[in-house]
Amino acid sequence: MALTAESPRLSRRRDLAPVLGMAAGVGAVHLVLSGRYGFHHDELYLLAARRHLALGYVDQPPFVALLVRGLTAVVGEHLWALRLVAGAAHAALVVVIAAVAAALGGRRRAVVMAGLAASLMPAFVEAGSRLGSLSVVLLWWGLAVLALVHLLGGGDRRWWLAVGLWLGLGLDTSRLGALVAVGVVAGLASVPAARHHLRSRWWWAGMALALVLWIPNVAWQAAHGWPLVDTGPRGTWAGGDGPAGFVVRQLVMAGPVGLVLAGAGLAWSWRHPPWRVLVVVVAVVAAGLAAVGAAGVDLAPGYVVALPAGAVAVEAWAGADLRRWRQAVGGVVANGLVLLPAVAPVTPVRTYADLYHDDVHAALGEQIGWPDMVGLVARVYEVLPADEKAGVRIVTARAGQAGAIDLYGPSRGVPRGTALSAHAGAVAWWPDGQPAGTVIFLDYGRRELAPYCDAMGPIAVVGNPVGVTNDLFSAPISVCRSMRVTPTELREALRRGG
């Protein structure tokens, strides 16, 4: 029979039309805002990592560094290019989440509500406002959820190949990928109605595909002592919000209305047996992240599941009552707009510094002050005697700081490759036998340096024009001309945190 204007296929296309408009708007807004503040320290680290391609890094799998390598080879080291990719990933995620709502049985209003919530969700906006592993893995996970929903709803079991593909790419993109994959297995095993999938040859084929994609990174991790599972004080998961902070941080990452919407979605999913697997996945991811005290934004994959289900729950609650629909839409819009300046560079820097940085959310502050910091380091480098400049090395406390010096240093007279760091993946990039001469230390105090050299300084202290107290602010710059330890001993001591 021919398709009519009211057929399900054409109806779903019509439902997605306003969502495509939202997605285009999301991408455009991210692009317009892309240059307002500056590079984030994670982006600076990625710019450095793409010059040291490997099958893995101590803090993340290799996919995003490879992506940045290809991107910069085409367009160069431009902020707008990185932000274009991140914003496009957020825009695509909006469409995927709306499609998940439709696959869950939502009609037009649920689909549009899901797209609106995804457009304004603070965690998604933050991921889309700068390029990092989270920006990309959310899209992979959204596509995996879409395929998983089709499967749980009785769809063709060959969808497991799609689930395996997206999970495999997620495993190669973010440290969150393994936790999400564990959540999927736990969900299928713990929900009786879904266990039959574990006996399907298509399930095994999909998981085999995921493992094939992941094996190179697993081999690298095994050869380097499994750094991605290190939860110690200097490990991969260090520097998060802590268990209690992780929970409290959701008030910013989702906002009060976002939490209500997500909670409604999980409750709705649990009441409908085909979707209980999704609730278990979110529970596993949330419990694992809270246990290691991860950053609050790391729970964003959970909202990829909960938001579309929440939109379907709102549709059931509101029905034909336009007043309830206006309340729901108004709440989602107000929630997103109030928190938007905390997660995206929409306000002047000084306004962000005064109203949001210290009291609400500090991540945007890590985009401020990099050229000023490099300029100050360059002035210290410039005053060194000519015979010392030839072999000088700049050792920074954080990998992003070394990445900033590599990016901005050449235009200020500091050769690229001069900066080293024992933080994150940069610990593997030290040339043999270096540093062998004068060393400029950034963000290390004299007491920290005392076991390694007799430091002069601080010669200067880093600031920024608006006084944002970020990781750069008040970082001392010191100089050592004679080291008491070998380069290898210095690197290992700094890697261990002294």
What do these coordinates show?
The protein has 498 residues and is mainly α. It contains 22 helices and 5 strands. The protein has helices spanning 8-33, 41-49, 63-75, 79-103, 108-120, 122-129, 133-152, 159-171, 176-190, 201-223, 242-248, 250-253, 255-271, 276-292, 300-318, 322-343, 349-357, 370-382, 386-389, 399-408, 446-449, 487-495, and strands spanning 393-396, 419-421, 439-442, 456-461, 476-480. It has a 5-stranded mixed sheet with strand order 2-1-3-5-4, with helices on one face. The longest helix is centred in the N-terminal third of the chain and has 26 residues, at 8-33. It is globular, with a radius of gyration of 24 Å. It starts with 7 loop residues before the first helix and ends with a helix. Mean pLDDT is 92; it is low at 1-10.
Distance N to C terminus? 74 Å
Task: Name the average pLDDT.
Answer: 92
**Main sheet characteristics:** 5 strands, mixed
Reading side by side through the largest sheet, how are the strands ordered? 2-1-3-5-4
Residue share in helix: 55-70%
In short:
By secondary structure, this protein is mostly helical. The protein is 60% helix and 4% strand. The chain has helices at residues 8-33, 41-49, 63-75, 79-103, 108-120, 122-129, 133-152, 159-171, 176-190, 201-223, 242-248, 250-253, 255-271, 276-292, 300-318, 322-343, 349-357, 370-382, 386-389, 399-408, 446-449, 487-495, and strands at residues 393-396, 419-421, 439-442, 456-461, 476-480.
